[in-house]
Structures are given as structure tokens and as C-alpha cells.
């Protein structure tokens, strides 16, 4: 994914989605700066060109909603301000379809934002042996 971002001189970021991931971990949040005595915006990892959402189905609904806003609107709302994300903006996501415990269903609106879904099954034993021989 990083190599793909380099192809068009774009930025790359990765988010490991977990059940305790908060929307602000994705979009960013305001941080109080003692020196200036003001709040400053700390942009989240969605402010990139190519975002890898790893195990996207492990995030709760409120975090999914934050990512969906970025995917739909191409902007993030932080502290009442709409901040555009860099263009082009693309999301590549992985999910573990086998483990259902600790996962959340993806909203239909979010699924509609992905161009394709590629299912990669575990290789057959003969294919696995061939892979091992090629790598070692």
C-alpha cells in the first residue's frame, strides 16, 4: 500500500482498528497548548491520500461513522470546522471474515464506498508447500 502511495507522490497512513478505537483516533481532536493557552487541532491519520484501514470490522459503530463521513464528504468536522482531506483520498481496508467475535458489521453506506471486495482464501496444502519452497 505504501508503494502505491509513492506511485502518485501521495501520503500514506495506517490505522489498526480495534474495539476501543475512538472516532478522534481516526479524525483528530483539539489539544490544549499551555504555552499559547489555546486549543490547537491535531489532525488524525485520515488526513492523507491513501489510508489503510486494517481490520476495519473491529471498530464500533461510532468510529465507523467518523470514517464514513470522510469517505462520503471528503472532509472531517473537528471542533465545528469542516476540514477537507487531501485529494485524491482513497481507503483500502482489510477485514477478517473468519473471526466473528469482537467484530462489528459494516454499515451498508460504508460498504457502498468501496469499489471492490477481494476475498483471499487460505491456499490449499500443495499451494502452501510451493509458496514455502519459493520463499525459503
UniProtKB/TrEMBL annotation:
The organism's place on the tree of life at top rank: Bacteria
InterPro entries found in the cross-reference section: ATPase_AAA-3, CbbQ/NirQ/NorQ/GpvN, P-loop_NTPase
Domain ATPase AAA-3: 1-116
GO molecular function annotation: ATP binding; ATP hydrolysis activity
PANTHER family to which the protein is assigned, alphabetical: MAGNESIUM-CHELATASE SUBUNIT CHLD, MOXR FAMILY PROTEIN
Protein name, UniProt field: AAA family ATPase
Organism of provenance: Pseudomonas aeruginosa
Taxonomic lineage: Bacteria, Pseudomonadati, Pseudomonadota, Gammaproteobacteria, Pseudomonadales
Amino acid at each position: 500500500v505504501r508503494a502505491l502511495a509513492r506511485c502518485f507522490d501521495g501520503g500514506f497512513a495506517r490505522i489498526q482498528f480495534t474495539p476501543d478505537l475512538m472516532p478522534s483516533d481516526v479524525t483528530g481532536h483539539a489539544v490544549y497548548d499551555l504555552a499559547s493557552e489555546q486549543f490547537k487541532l491535531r489532525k488524525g491519520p485520515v488526513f492523507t491520500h491513501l489510508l489503510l484501514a486494517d481490520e476495519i470490522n473491529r471498530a464500533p459503530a461510532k468510529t465507523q461513522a467518523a470514517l464514513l463521513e470522510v469517505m462520503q464528504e471528503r472532509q472531517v468536522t473537528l471542533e465545528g470546522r469542516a476540514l477537507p482531506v487531501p485529494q485524491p483520498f482513497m481507503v483500502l481496508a482489510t477485514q477478517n471474515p473468519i473471526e466473528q467475535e469482537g467484530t462489528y458489521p459494516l454499515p451498508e453506506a460504508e460498504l457502498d464506498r468501496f469499489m471492490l471486495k477481494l476475498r483471499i482464501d487460505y491456499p490449499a496444502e500443495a499451494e502452501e508447500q510451493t509458496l514455502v519452497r519459493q520463499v525459503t
